[in-house]
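[worker-b] picked up task from shared queue
[worker-b] task type: protein-ligand structure
[worker-b] ligand name resolved to S-adenosylmethionine; SMILES cross-checked against name lookup, match
[worker-b] sequence length check passed
[worker-b] input payload:
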Amino acid sequence: MTDRGSELAQDFYGRWARLYDLLARRTPGIGTLRRQAAAACRLESGDTVVEMGCGTGANLPYLRERVGPDGTVVGIDFTRPVLEHARDRTAAYDNVHVVRGDATAPPVAGDVDAVLATFVVGMLAEPARAVDDWADLVGSGGHVVLVNAARSKRWYAPPVNALFRAVVVLSTPPTTRLRYDPDPVRQLDERVESAHERLRDRAAAIAEETHALGVVRLTGGRIS
Ligand SMILES: C[S@@+](CC[C@H](N)C(=O)[O-])C[C@H]1O[C@@H](n2cnc3c(N)ncnc32)[C@H](O)[C@@H]1O
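[worker-b] inference finished, payload out:
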């Protein structure tokens, strides 16, 4: 949690926490997407679910709805200011816990039924390894669900991807060298692809959906 990339990411999300929170909750269609992501975790009442990189907690109420009052929801993020939003958002629930920690070495032990990570793996240097660790955490029969944005592959992709590139460039924490080295869109595509691919390899039953003109993809899997 101390390398330069992590520090820059925390600084970036810390500074923009309030704006990010608005986007995370008010972007058209985002509520439906978060509800579908929570549904793909295939949770039952009383289950335990961990959200990696929970940000300002926009998914946490949907997860709490799924596990009910007897379940447990844990949100993990390494950026302090976003966690304050997440804590405010979930203050009414005593079974939702918001914890500061690294999603690649999550501070959780015991039975976990599902892991959700939305718009996070693109920030990880080794996304496939993180997916492996999350799959190991839930174990056989547990669920891992990833939601991420990457370039669209649809026939009408060029204008969509031009807009996507602008959003990615504006929302990418600067790297230690040049802001655009490596190209943030290509790096995001590669990381997202490798994470979703690894989840498909590790899972027996797969749910795949695309949203937002093919830019947003959801992969959910039951770990075999
Ligand atoms: C784009 S935001 C997504 C937040 C949330 N999942 C959502 O859907 O709104 C990415 C979040 O991941 C967090 N994050 C990135 N890498 C992380 C890591 N290694 N450990 C913990 N949190 C991390 C950032 O602090 C940030 O809050």
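[worker-b] attaching auto-annotations
[worker-b] The longest strand covers residues 203-211.
[worker-b] releasing lock
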